[in-house]
Design a protein that fits this description.
mainly alpha, about 65% helix, about 0% strand
Amino acid sequence: MYIFFIVLILIASILLILAVLAQNPKSGMAANFGASNQVMGVRQTADFLEKFTWTLSISIVVLSLAATMTMPSQNISVSKSAVEEALEQSLEGNQNLLPSAQPAAPATEPTETPAPAETPAQ
């Protein structure tokens, strides 16, 4: 059932892309020259495409929720373990970046080094 929902989501996505590409822009420079949209029933086509777009969008959301509900439990556990492993690795990586909680070595007074002896000029 899960694969059936995934196939339906893919089909709806492709149809949604085609419906959006088929629509005329309603704003911008094309709106100035778009007075011919209301001639010969083109307006009804635009209404149909808009309703079709909204219907496909809503159906993709519903199908996605249905696919999530019918996902096999073994896929859920595998995906959870992969997410948990990634989280643990990122936490370990961040621990290496943080300063360690070990106390710093006690500061010692610097010892004075003797100044180099001057050599006579030759």
